[in-house]
């Protein structure tokens, strides 16, 4: 080996060593953030347990959450008062395992593999694998560790379960592991590129202003709260194409910022079929967080209780959302419309944008106004919400949408409006449902040069 080659080898070795120390420092800082989030959010979700879970499990769940919080506090103290070192990924595994075990024990108490509470494990995987800037292999190992805990404890309890539900749960957990591992890989490359660029700048001391701007952009892209919240928001959206007697097509086009558009398609274990759509006021992380809270609350309510009407579900969900908004110290509210799907009719409640239904027999669009109250404003909606029965014939198509569609503006500041949307639905109703949704989106985006708000639509077609 020549002298120059040896010199390069020594320099590379020093850079790798320094980068490892730099990486350990970043992991330590974000580990403290992760533990603080756990300490705050784990007890906070007791409120959701109180409103959505069977009363006889309230004390047990409180014990689970209390014990988990104490263990996470101990982890925080260990991280806080130790120096960065190579063993720091172990703390990430421990935190993830502790919180995952708590959630898995709850799924065991709620019916094992049939319980929808497994969805909390996806939040754990996202929080740990996305916040911690560790190497991608740790995200993969941590993901399979969480999956093993879920399978192991529920298999040990040997409770009866529907194989289709287990396959569904494993599909979404596996997808979350793949998504978070991919994000971890990209983020690690960005962190290393940022560090090497910084080292090069220190050595060369050239183009300092431009390089600083590049570093700031890399940092903002890496740690930007908007991109993180947006990824979590879209990762939890359903991908169903059929539910009961209805064909489904749902599309969402978010803006660059995080929004509060909500839709969900729920096939409850008791056989009930539900569809919801709504919009949180404003944009940003707060709106996205409230949207996720609403999604979690409604799913938990319809999964755990049978034969509830849409108005009853919204009344219970509103109590949770109102309390959460008060805790956040904000003044957000949320439009919401919830449907229970029956073979020949829809049962609907809630206040949102007008409901459009293409009647196949008349070949005309019927517009049905919604009434009631928005969620998150008053404590009790019992006197202002009522259920409406909407007949559905074979071939009828329901169009649900958010205001990003109708309030799109062109260069002349003209609104796209409901009239254009009605004509668009009427003239394209014969298209396949997915193609119909794509046609609506392409028409709206061509009308609006620069998208200013999240755009969401859900189409339901009665197959007869």
From TrEMBL:
The chain crosses the membrane at residues 33-51, 57-78, 90-110, 139-156, 168-188. SUPFAM superfamilies: PP2C-like (SSF81606). Residues 243-462 form the PPM-type phosphatase domain. Keywords: Hydrolase, Membrane, Transmembrane, Transmembrane helix. Pfam families: SpoIIE. InterPro entries: Bact_Sigma-Reg, PPM-type-like_dom_sf, PPM-type_phosphatase-like_dom. This is LacI family transcriptional regulator. It comes from Leptospira yasudae.
């Amino acid at each position: 080996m020549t002298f120059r080659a040896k010199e390069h080898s020594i320099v590379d070795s020093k850079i790798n060593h320094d980068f490892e120390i730099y990486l350990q420092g970043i992991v330590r800082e974000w580990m403290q953030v992760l533990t603080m989030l756990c300490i705050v959010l784990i007890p906070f979700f007791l409120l959701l347990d109180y409103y959505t879970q069977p009363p006889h499990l309230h004390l047990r769940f409180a014990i689970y959450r209390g014990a988990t919080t104490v263990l996470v506090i101990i982890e925080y103290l260990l991280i806080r008062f130790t120096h960065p070192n190579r063993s720091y990924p172990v703390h990430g595994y421990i935190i993830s395992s502790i919180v995952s075990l708590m959630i898995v024990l709850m799924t065991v108490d709620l019916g094992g593999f049939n319980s929808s509470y497994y969805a909390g494990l996806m939040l754990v995987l996202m929080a740990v694998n996305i916040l911690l800037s560790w190497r991608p292999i740790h995200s993969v190992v941590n993901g399979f560790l969480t999956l093993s805990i879920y399978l192991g404890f529920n298999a040990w309890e040997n409770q009866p379960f529907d194989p289709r539900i287990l396959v569904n749960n494993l599909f979404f957990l596996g997808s979350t592991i793949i998504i978070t591992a991919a994000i971890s890989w990209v983020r690690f490359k960005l962190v290393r590129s940022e560090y090497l660029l910084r080292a090069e700048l220190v050595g060369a001391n050239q183009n300092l202003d431009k390089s600083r701007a590049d570093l700031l952009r890399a940092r903002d892209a890496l740690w930007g709260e908007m991109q993180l919240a947006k990824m979590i928001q879209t990762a939890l959206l359903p991908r169903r194409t059929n539910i009961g007697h209805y064909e489904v097509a749902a599309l969402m086009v978010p803006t660059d910022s995080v929004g509060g558009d909500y839709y969900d398609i729920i096939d409850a274990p008791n056989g009930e079929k539900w569809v919801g759509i709504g919009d949180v006021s404003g944009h940003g992380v707060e709106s996205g967080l409230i949207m996720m809270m609403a999604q979690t609350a409604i799913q938990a309510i319809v999964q755990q209780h049978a034969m509830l009407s849409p108005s009853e579900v919204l009344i219970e969900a509103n109590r949770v959302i109102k309390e959460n908004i008060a805790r956040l110290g904000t003044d957000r509210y949320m439009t919401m419309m919830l449907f229970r799907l029956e073979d020949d009719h829809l049962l609907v409640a809630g206040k949102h944008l007008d409901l459009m239904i293409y009647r196949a027999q008349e070949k005309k669009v019927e517009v049905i106004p919604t009434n009631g109250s928005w969620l998150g404003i008053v404590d009790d909606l019992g006197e202002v919400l009522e259920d409406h029965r909407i007949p559905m014939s074979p071939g009828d198509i329901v169009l649900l949408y958010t205001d990003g569609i109708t309030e799109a503006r062109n260069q002349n500041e003209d609104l796209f409006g409901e009239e254009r949307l009605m004509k668009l639905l009427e003239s394209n109703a014969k298209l396949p449902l997915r193609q119909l949704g794509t046609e609506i989106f392409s028409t709206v985006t061509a009308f609006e040069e620069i998208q200013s708000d999240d755009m969401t639509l859900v189409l339901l077609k009665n197959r007869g």
